[in-house]
């Protein structure tokens, strides 16, 4: 009941007046005819017999055949026609509009910003900001991280003073923001004045004025544009921003520009806390700009249609909240600590998230088989509560719901845990691992670099379903379910264009 009351409160007063007028129009006619039927029926009249009497009355009643009956009762015909018209108008006014991903662009820095293992080791040693134990620890983490030698680093890494300053952070942010948005407007031929909503997400760099204001100033958006600046959302901010834009666009046709980035310059950790040193080894530079729209005329030009989204937040759990957190070390150096139980927390949070998503996307056959496997596992549980290898619970097969899966490349250990959780093959995880290898963890923009991998390979076909899953500190998770509207093909500015032939490695 509360759900319907909320729908009514959102309706316009005119719509409520129309329904009231309809009720007043129908009441006399329906009371007259239905009253005649009920008064002439036995006291023990049941619902099926009432429907049968009404049908008999329309076909064989005193008014003659049904057609003659309708002609003779013009008020009833007018009322029914008015009802159908109002219902159609109400449906068209309240139904959510479809949302499309029109185009996207990923920032690719110049080759002189590539951070190979040798360059990284050279920087660490020449900066003289780390002790020998920390240098060896970062060397071990880097070699096991799954990152290749062609990821990109912030500008200050290649300077002589090795000092991260505000100027370097602005340079890193503006290079990514302006480059990706320029490429996006060029590809779509959309003028900045057409954009209705601007959402900018950057987890760790929060200047004043905001990054969204910087973009508004640079491109001269109109004064009525709605702007949002998201911070502290971690690696999930990319999918969260798309979900946020879609919810606004479903109410009114328009364009939303979503720009997701991460500025690592001021967040490079100079200390010897091992939990904080890990971020130096896996996070890299990256920015993506996405244009989404609810304009039905753009459906033919769009790449994807958003079918469903789901967001979950597990911050109420202390372990989830503290798994990745910004803090000071014992010497006062600020960094982001990734605790030892991060993989366990991510696994638990993703399990809850996927459990919520599964009934909404899996086919009925897979849901029934999954329910059977869970019940069987419970019945065959060993004494003492232990479960044997032959009685492990069945993991739903999401490949029956999606042709492609695009997971956030948070790190090698996280990808491995996700593969075990969903019982995925290496072929399914290939795009995620290759994105980590080529670009590293670019935080909120990672899923769009991975989408570019699918396009560069030409794997997506019209009608295919794509599952995007991103997760980050908090612990938060967000899923986006897309349907391809056309076959994928690599663009000239695809970030994989110069190296896709060597992947997978």
Automatic annotation (TrEMBL):
Pfam families: ACP_syn_III_C, FAE1_CUT1_RppA
Keywords: Acyltransferase, Transferase
CDD domains per the UniProt record, alphabetical: CHS_like
Active site residues per record: 235, 313, 404, 408, 437, 441
One GO-annotated biological process of the protein: fatty acid biosynthetic process
GO molecular function, one term: acyltransferase activity, transferring groups other than amino-acyl groups
The EC number(s) this enzyme carries: 2.3.1.-
Domain Beta-ketoacyl-[acyl-carrier-protein] synthase III C-terminal: 403-483
UniProt xrefs under Gene3D superfamilies: 3.40.47.10
Transmembrane spans: none
Pathway stated in the Swiss-Prot or TrEMBL entry: Lipid metabolism; fatty acid biosynthesis
Keyword Transferase: yes
Regions annotated as coiled coil: none
Domain annotation FAE: ranges: 92-376
GO cellular component: membrane
Similarity comment text for this entry: Belongs to the thiolase-like superfamily. Chalcone/stilbene synthases family.
Name under which the protein is recorded: 3-ketoacyl-CoA synthase
